[in-house]
Amino acid sequence: MTAGRVIGITAVCLAAVGGLLWVARAGRQAPAPAERPVTLMVHAGAGIRPALDELGARYTAETGVKIEYNYKGSGCLLADICASRKGDAYIPGELYYIEQAVQRDLVSEYRVVANLTTVLVVQPGNPKGIEDIRDLTRPGMRVGIGEPEMVAVGRAAREVLTRAGVWDKMKRNIVMEGQNVSEVGNAVKLGHIDAGIVWDATAALYSPRELTTVEVPEKWRVVSPVPVGVLSFSRFPEESKQFLAFLASDEAEQVFKKHGFATPVPEAQKKPVTKGEGV
After folding, report:
1. What is the mean pLDDT of residues 210-224?
2. Counted domains in the chain
3. Based on the domain organization, do 92 and 41 belong to the same domain?
4. Are 128 and 116 in contact, with CB atoms under 8 Å apart?
5. Is the model's pTM score more than 0.70?
6. What contacts 107, CB < 8 A, 6 or more positions away?
7. CB 179 within 8 A of CB 119
């Protein structure tokens, strides 16, 4: 990320400034309830919210460790973290952002805990007959994506359209760039746009009466690993690492699957990564 991009992201996101759960039983014991009050502040991508809300409630019930989330677009969260240097964990919707955080010494360790996959959502019943990404280039189509410089799903949408060879043609039909993935899904639901590129877990939030999902061909779709990182200035680094271990557990995997994260994570990819390893 260039200095100009960091400044741009910060300028947009600082206006919003102010506004992680249960260790797997297999092979290890659950942590004892905290002897002192512990609240982990977790900066997390908005598209991961449903699963994280449930996982946070489970973890608190089991351990007594409270979880507070700050949900926004992944780039906005990075700007928040850079500006405030507050929080215990960072969960963006893409490896790109965690790698940026590692390079800036903001994250000391991370794990991949889930995968997000791009899908196309259209209005119920697909009245515009959108069957292919290339249909989005038709004259008069109203398309929404996440803001590519600040939102993980926006970067992914741009990559999908580039792989399909239609990014340049599509620009005239992109009528909204959401600050998070939920904005794109809701815009389709409300009829403000004809189609949007979102995550599979986002599409799973809507009923068939609200949205219709059109699969993106494998050759064009983007699968984005969801990493969970411990912030280097965390007040509770050990508790944060325990939270990471829980999110990589079999129990947590089932919760992610329940909430529409359809692409599983190979066990080898769940191992902790520290600076100098893979980034």
Report:
1. 96
2. 2
3. yes
4. no
5. yes
6. 90, 98, 101, 229, 230, 231, 232, 275
7. no
